[in-house]
Amino acid sequence: MPSPQSLSEADRRLVASWAADCAERVLPLFEAEAPDDDRPRDAIARARAYASGELDTAGEIRRRFVANRASQVVSSPAAKAAAWSAGQAAGVAHMGAHALGSAAYAAKAAELHQAGAGAAEIAWQLEQLSDPARTALRLLPALGTDLSGPLGSGLLASGVLGANIRALQDGLRRRPEVTALELVGGPEPVRVELHDADPRWPERYLDHRQRIIEALGTSAGGSSTIAIEHIGSTSVPGLAAKPIVDIVVAVADITAEEDYLDPLLAAGYVLRVREPRHRMVRTPERDVHVHLYEQGAPEIGEYLLLRDHLRSDTDDRALYERTKRELLGRPWDDMNDYADAKTEVILAIKARARAALSR
């Protein structure tokens, strides 16, 4: 399965042009020290040629980091960062996340050359983005949330480069994220009831999956494929559950509510939760909950880890059901309080799930 940091080839070509612009801005810092070394300039030219479709992906992948070696012939940190910016731009053919790497190195080079210039460089970079390129970059996972590429735990994730990429990803959002929990309608006292596994739950999921697809089209993520998964206890065959189907949907920008929340409300769902990184809508009957996160959000992976493990491990499935039954009969001020009461057992089950995957 391709890394979410790769992007589609079409999106890589979109962001390659922007990465070349970022690298070219600081190229004079390198050429002032090594005027006869054309490797960074050539890398930028190849990034532009790749963006326009003149060069193929395979050929550029083989040559992607030639410019990085040019950093060895200059002495100043700013010139070295400029060379690395060009190398990252050429690397976009391999993985779209390198576009953010190119911009981050360019901002670092600008800051090293003149104190205070890094923030201005990032502002300039964001202003140069076309709407399609901005949409493509929003598909990348948040820094540090996915380990399958340069935005994982490597060089780009730490220090000045990490700070620059965080600033860039924050700047890609339509607007600032909310900072507190909003529980629309306030707390709702509930009495949790478990039902035996019902074959209608997967059918209900499929019905609502189709409704979500029809409501969102391509607006949720700028892609023809919307990531939608059945999660929670109703997604595990044979597991007793409260009769509420939980669904998770990945969107490109959680702050761009007009792209996903407005269409879902128009499709008949009702907003229940708005909090940092997460929105939840539900049916008026409260029998389907739709959780929305940004693409690459670690919460999505956690949901799927638990679901897949419970589907395959009978002992932990039985433990989880016993835990839920032990909580039956208690009055709960809100459904979220019931969910919190299961946390310790869920964490232990997920630890075993990770251990099983590593074997």
TrEMBL record:
Residues 6-131 form the Imm-5-like domain. This is GrpB-like predicted nucleotidyltransferase (UPF0157 family). Keywords: Transferase. GO terms for molecular function: transferase activity. It comes from Plantibacter flavus.
